[in-house]
Amino acid sequence: MFSPAARKPHLAATPSQGRNHPDSPSTPLDETRPSFLSYASVPGRPTTGTPAPWSSRLSVLARSSPYALATNTMISCLLLVLCVIWMQNFTGKNGDLNDLVFVSAFVVLFSSLDNSLVAGGMDKETSLAWIICGTQLFVWSYLSGMVPKNCFVLELPSSVVGDRIVGMKYTNGRNWMLCAVRWDVSSKKVFEQCNSAGIILCNQETGAVVYWPDIYSESLNAPVVSLSEPQSKESDISARHERYQSFIVSAIPGSSQECIALACRSTGGLFLFKFSPSGIHCQMVFHDVLAGNSNSSSQMNELCARSLVWHPQYTYSDDSGRQFFLLTDHEIQCWNIVFIPNINVKKLWSHEIVGNDGHLGIKKDLAGQKQIWLLDMQLDDRGKEFTILVATSCKDRVSSSNYIQYSLLTMQYKPGCSTKTSWSMNERLLEKKAPLQTVIPKARVEDRGYLFSTRIRVGGKPSGSVIILSGDGTATVTSYWKGSSRLYQFDLPWDGGKVLDASVLPSIDDSEEGAWVVLTEKAGVWAIPEKAVLLGGVEPPERSLSRMGSLNESVVDEEKKSQKTGGNTVPGRPGSEAWGSGDRQRVALVGKTAQDEEAESLLSRLFHEFLFSGEVQGVFEKLGEKGAFLKEDETNVFARMSKSIVDTLAKHWTTTRGAELVASAVVSSLLLDKHQKHQKYLQFLALTKCHEELSSKQRRSTLIIMEHGEKLSSMIQLRELQNMLSQNQKYLSDSPSSHAQAEASGSLWNLIQLVGEKARRNTVLLMDRDNSEVFYTKVSDIEELFYCLSHHREYVIGGGQPFIIQMQRACELSNACTTLIQAAMHYRDEHRNWYPSLEGLSSWNCQHVVRSGLWSLASLIMHLLKEVQATDMSVEQEMWSQLEGLTDVLLDAYTSSITAKIECGEEHHGLVEEYCQRRDELLDSLYDLAKRLTELKYQESHLSEEDLERREAIFRELTEPLLLIAKRHEGYQTLWQLCYDLSDTGLLRTLMHESLGPKGGFSYFVFKQLMKSHQCSKLLRLGEEFQEELAIFLKEHKDLLWLHELYLKQFSSASETLHAVALSLDDGPPLMTEEEPEMVQLKRSPSLADRRRLLNLSKIAAVAGKDKSFETKTRRIEADLQILKLQEEIVGHLSDDREDINRPLPPGELIEVCLREASKEVCLKPFEVFAWTSSSFRRSNRSLLEECWKNAASQDDWIALLQVSTAEGWSDTDVLEALRETVLYKASSWCYGPESQIHGGGFEEVMPLQKDDDEFSSIKDETLSVEGILMQHTDFPDAGKLMLTAIMLAKVGGDHAPVQEHMAMDSR
Fold it and tell me: Which residues are listed as membrane-spanning (predicted)?
């Protein structure tokens, strides 16, 4: 059914290619093999669809060891692993890159007496494949690239076979359904295969069920059988409708080897099975899941129940419940099953897809269709999207012919509905994610048995693709690419038989999809690369091509034309180059133009000519004409060539030797060959002047080429390290197998296996290769080692092992990582003249993925050091050595990365913060470990008496490398702690001179520490040697700055500092005294008297400095001294203690305090404060001065004074004497009297006594005067003469004549 015009490889142009190269890994072409072009003509094609190999692949057979599966009744079966890579790498006469097809396959060949294949399938959760051959069930893992070590052969009980298996040909032998349940799902296996699983086998026709509790356990692999009652044999149709349509299994949480299964019958019955090693219990949960639903369109000749699927997550956090979904003929039903305490099944909601209401479901999208069938449903791994295969019966209005259209419907939860806990039965929780995607517009009409045998699978690459498994044994991948739907049909160039099932290769990273894998009838398990799907896909044809022939023979030619991409652009090569390293994004199908292909081909040819002849004449010009210097980064032709050199696969490596492979010298030999070839490549670039051109214009590409050399050197050193570890463990046994096992037991071996497995799963071309082979081949992706170390540390180290074992394994990995980085840095130093300018470029060892891996390992070592106190000196020393090496390379990576970001102008503050935090943590851990090692070494000396010098010598020796690292990375806390614990001021001063950095460097840190611990005397003594540095630091600590300035004889600056400190509005400088020789204890805050003393010191310093303005400074200091004295007096007269007597109040605030007090004792103090301030202060606070005069005028009873003087007949002299006692007189005397002391100009400049004074005519506001203020007083109309007389008397002082004359004039 799903058979788009399959594109066949064009190997006819090179028929003798395989024969000319007998050592080639490609399968040789037999003389009797028909041309591949003959298969483009469908009539000559075998009816089974995938023609079988005409000759055995002897190269594979020769290197494969037989695996005997001995039984009492059958000859042993031979399990082989076969990888066939079929690739055309060149254009032109060798073919078109659009014809590129490559697949990696596992083939299981069975040689037995009865090899009739009955059924087969794949289980995604356990990665197990299974087939039933004769009366035996074969189960194995399809993840291994080697011959499976665990292939289980299970005998089907005779009670379930008998004569019932005969005649099961309706669905091509697919009457058996198998489900596997994994018991070790909670363990973190990362990439290991399943090692504990139960198998449940169900016959769809008979209802017989067989349960193997654990096929990995010898004691639990005995089958448990349940036979249902024989079905009614009234007719074949009725028998078919009583068959089980779908079967799903789930483990029961908290139980051992117990699980439940749900099965739906085609007629709507829902059954619950409970399995345990003691037996199988079955009960019908619902007789008809569509009971009471009038919208069902099921008839006796149709199936109303289609498929069951689990929700990928449990319903509750305690795993006590789980949801599952049932697809019927017209709707999706959601059910919930509760495991604890009692098993209970309940229907939650349903969503109608095909209904009578044309506005709901998909009928409105399929107007005019005669009938709609929902064939199968799958749910994605997130439990969010439902994919449903829909078939519709249609009629062509022109030709009146009937046809079937196949479409894919994608449904998703409405926003917020996926987390709801309660629903109504009629609530619609789903919505269409996208319109119906038509897969086959017009296909032949098939019978319903054929339609309902069609299945789909989801979750493979490309993202969003779906594989459709039809009843005739074909597998078609449908994807959406470049704005249209594309179909790719899995097909082998020989007879591989029918496709039995399909699944997805599990990715190590849960966020990534895996490649599609299919199980074939005769060729085993094959992986479908993403590139094959995208580039080999075709537009959906008008008519599907069956195995019997095409309705349109020209469709093949038309399809070939549709494969051509627009312009000169050809697809890039994904495969091993497409999967990323760690946090690098995976780049699939990087576009390459035809010009790129030509340039790459020319470069390869010219380089190989150079290897043979050494000729380089005209190379630069030829490559320039082809545009070889145009691309940047990884897409550059020269960088691609370098990558192909270091990532070359060895054709002579085998896949069946396991750990013995890397124990041989083959790996080291190949790596050395690559190294020599890469060196030749660099010479080629230099001699042809290409290196000079790249270094000046393509710096990033040049760096990538050199980094390939770094990584190759690192890989060689890592291989040498592994050989050394192997030699150290060789004493265990001299046998090769034990030797390999000893090597495989280490953490480095586990990490290599993990990285290799990740590469295999992401690159299906490598699926037949050994993990270690893949690791040592993928040199350019060495960052993956650090990625796996970061994300799968617990698996590699062995989290359940004792701490001492974890320490040893962590040290082994640490040694490997530092060896890698140091080898790369050594290569960089040796070839430094080959590198371009690195400004703004970040090398591979500085990438986030590398830093994360190193930090993950370092943090583990630090954690282990905290958890356990090792008493073994050798263990402690090894931990010290490895943590020191990790710290060194990790901090260097951070500094290089930060430098590159700064040079590029990128945001780097977050990275700097992370660097500082991790640097301090690493150095602190190293310092603590150094002290522990010092104690252990000192105890080993067995001295009878305490020898402090010996202890100090040991400590100095141990911390020498730590000192170097801390100096290089500004680990000031560690440097300070070292000097402090050693009491070595000489070392401290030396480090302060050497470690200069931002914000003063180490000297600034030392000053800060001394300040924090109040060791001010030591701080000031350091100022003798670090004068400028301390002066800069003390700008933030002025309470000590004046002392340093006095030492520097900067008296004027010291005076200003003292003046500012004395009048500071905070608590002021703490007064300290050295009561102890080392520490300075904090004493009380300074009082006002203390502040006056500081002002006096400031005055002395100003006089000592004698600068140009020292007289002005001294007068200002004198004025501030007077204000402080006034504050003391004012505070002494306050009625409460609300004011802080030690804090100097600002003049304005001090005046307001006096006004609030309103007493004669303090009413004159504001005028004194005004007098000692500046002219600018008086001018800006004129309103406050006005309030002071009003307050002074209100202190005396002027009416009473007037009445007494009149009644008693006072003379002018008596009146004047009385006025001298008034507050108004005293205030005027302070401000305007002949003996007044005013700082910074007189009061007349701000407020004159009388408004008509010619002397003060410059005042703009003539009404603002003391006389004007007094005129506003309530007593002024009656006693104004006395008030004015008082202020005038104060102005003239002792001379009464003017005042008396003024009084006489007023009396007249």
Answer: 67-88, 100-120, 127-143
> Strand order in 475-481's β-sheet?
455-460, 465-469, 475-481, 484-489
Name, in order, each residue with C-beta under 8 angstroms of 967's C-beta and a sequence gap of 6 or more: 975, 991, 994, 995
190: its two tokens: 């990362």
φ, ψ of residue 743 to 5 degrees: the values are -70, -40
Average pLDDT over residues 1135-1146: 69
Q: Report residue 752 CA to chain centroid gap.
A: 22
* Whole-number Å distance between alpha carbons of 516 and 1065: 76
| DSSP state at residue 209 | E
Task: Output the CA–CA distances (angstroms, integers) from residue 981 to 919, 920, 978, 1012, in the order listed.
Answer: 20, 18, 5, 17
Distance CA 208, CA 206 (A): 5
Tokens of 1233: 């009297």
The model's pTM: 0.71
Q: Which helix (H) or strand (E) holds 921?
A: helix 909-940
Residue recorded with tokens 């007593």: 1275
pLDDT tens for 411-453 read 898 887 766 666 666 677 888 888 888 888 888 888 887 888 8
DSSP conformation letters of 99-124? G----EEE-EE---S---EEEEEEET
Nearby residues of 295 by Cβ (< 8 Å), 6 or more positions away: 330, 331, 352, 355, 356
State how far the alpha carbon of 257 is from the alpha carbons of 217, 847, 933, in Å.
11, 46, 50
Those residues whose C-beta lies under 8 Å from the C-beta of residue 284, and which sit 6 or more positions away, are: 269, 270, 271, 272
**Phi-psi sector, 741: left (phi>0), alpha (psi -120 to 50), beta:** alpha
Query: pLDDT at position 596, please?
Result: 81
For residues 474 and 413, what is the distance between their CA atoms, to the nearest angstrom?
A: 32
Predicted confidence (pLDDT) per residue in 190-218, tens digit:
556 678 899 999 988 888 899 999 998 88
Q: In angstroms, rounded to a whole number, what is the distance separating the alpha carbons of residues 1239 and 328?
A: 101
Which three-class secondary structure string do you get for 802-868?
Answer: CHHHHHHHHHHHHHHHHHHHHHHHHHHHHCHHHCCCCCCCCCHHHCHHHHHHHHHHHHHHHHHHHHC
pLDDT score recorded for residue 65: 35
Nearest-angstrom CA–CA distance, 1037 and 623? 67
- Residue 1159 Cα distances to 121, 193, 1123, 1269, 1270, angstroms: 105, 95, 19, 20, 19
